[in-house]
Model the fold of this input.
Amino acid sequence: MKHFVLCSGIFSLFLLAFTVRSSETDFVKENFTYAGQQLRFMLQETASKPNSFPRTINKAGNLVTTNMYDWTPGFFPGSLWNAYDYMKDTEMRSAAREWTEQLEPLKTFTGHHDLGFMMYCSYGNAFQLTGDEAYKKILVQSARSLSTRFNAVTGCIKSWNSFRSWHGDKTYNFPVIIDNMMNLELLFFASKVTGDTAFRHVAVTHALNTMKNQVRKDYSSFHVVCYDTVTGKVAGRETAQGYADNSTWSRGQAWGIYGFTMVYRETKDPRFLKTAQGMADYFIHHKNLPADKVPYWDFNAGQKGYTPGVNSNARKITRPYRDASAAAIVASALLELSTYSGAKGGEYKEVAIKMLHALGSDVYRAKPGTNGNFLLMHCVGSIPHNGEIDVPLVYADYYFLEALNRYDHLLKGESLFAKKD
Ligand code: GLY
Done:
């Protein structure tokens, strides 16, 4: 009798685990079915507009596109690759190839640091999913172009060519933003496929200096750190897109969590793991993180002790806008971080799943055919610049799809990077 009770208990647990797993598999599937539909609508809308890369919508609800030199053109092709990765739909693959290949001229672009986003989200996914050698060559040339922005005195890649302080008193000529951590993945890739360790040296040096100068003791982050190119010392710590210089801009923190997790993957240096975990813990345990785990645009907006610069539009904003893009980036990062974090990994995975369910709900996910055919609503581009407030953003969709793919791989017991045809 005892034996029977034990067996039926084990069977019930097994059944419960199976039911939860299959409902989660359905959750991922339903989101990709929806995404496939929205992406196809977007393909129809953009069919007659070459060199116009979807970015967001304007106040009238119409699609806003950019040319290829903005920082975001890689995300729409990257979303198509993510959809193809899950759906294995050949039409999606042709569209992904077409959109990716428009970006080839960027391989020699050196105008800002975002080449990693632009090329690795497009060509990087393209190469992983097709193995096409031509894509590999383009990625290596792109890494060469990005490396030209590295300065041996500062030990960093220069993000923008200059940065005008919101305080109106200074313009800096060597700004580095926390977002720049994301561009390092392209350099690690180039180092692996060419055997040239110079790319890796640039990436690791940049990451070490970012860890030292940009991440605070409590693992929150400064958005912009400006350097003196003669002494290599820090000349200023400010914000461009956050509320105040000493606040924590949610998407900046998200880039840091993702970036340091990726650098740990590539180096296995425990200092990067500790930084990724510290930044993740700051984010997920913050008292201002709402119950659905989708953050406000800045963790400190409107709080005592935090003051926007005189020229920042953040001074005028009191509404607590959410930023779904930060949640999508963090969900994807936490799924990877969970696989490196032993016992702590359970919490990272649980929070990531909670974020994905929030983003996939009616609160954040748009109805088919609405939202300019983007997937997610309620993102923030830059409140200080008074731009892209409470709108869809193409990169939110990209990281949402990437996170769903990662979750799908975890549900199937596969490696997160089990791509390839
Ligand atoms: N990399 C720019 C941004 O996150 O808005």
